[in-house]
Predict the structure of Indole-3-glycerol phosphate synthase.
Amino acid sequence: MNILDKIVAHKRIEVAEAKSKVSTADLEKAPLFGRKTLSLKQALTAEGASGVISEFKRKSPSKGIINDGVLPEIVTKGYVEAGACGLSVLTDTEFFGGTFDDFAKARAANPSTPMLRKDFMIDEYQLWEAKAIGADVILLIAACLTPAEVRHLGRKAQELGLEVLLEVHDREELEQSVCEYVDMVGVNNRNLKTFVTSIETSLELAQLIPDNFVKISESGLKNAETILQLREAGYQGFLIGESFMVTENPGLALKELIGRFQLTSNQ
């Protein structure tokens, strides 16, 4: 069993336990459930946008503890002040150290910024959870869902007013899973089964993603040259977390990166 299989197996247990404690009707009573969601798609395509979606991540299965000594409200506010278009906050506890409390604190600190609930979505119940905690976007990972499940969850998410980011790792996943219930397509340069990272994955898939979807490159993005290369290939979004989170001041790290690729692009 690879790490992705382990995560999904554990997630099924988690979701079953959550359902037994809190109903969807109860989730609909949450103060943030009825809020008007913000569009990450619009934020990424706005004129002059940095395109960066900055991630708050405490740990990962491949790297272990990345940074567990920072506060989500401080880090995410720093990201937004530095020029992030959107935020990604992990809510998986077992493997990534994330919590709903992390998301809530980031949401409260950044009421006008689109936020992605970063988790392994396998059940429509999790969409209600996402709305209840104030998410604007949910992630559907093709590697752990069938094409039919992507369509079903994507349609339900959009009916709730959530945008959908579909994550793919190869051509087969892209061709089988992309559908009308997806707003953005993210190419994860990190293989979730092996955790090997290669930017070539994004470059190879760039022209295969239909132009009506906002294209986002994820994982392994550390320098301005790489981002500019991906921009030239058609990507408008760049999901970056680890390279910021390993620093003492993630917001400053983002500000410096944006400064570098804006300077390089103007030369």
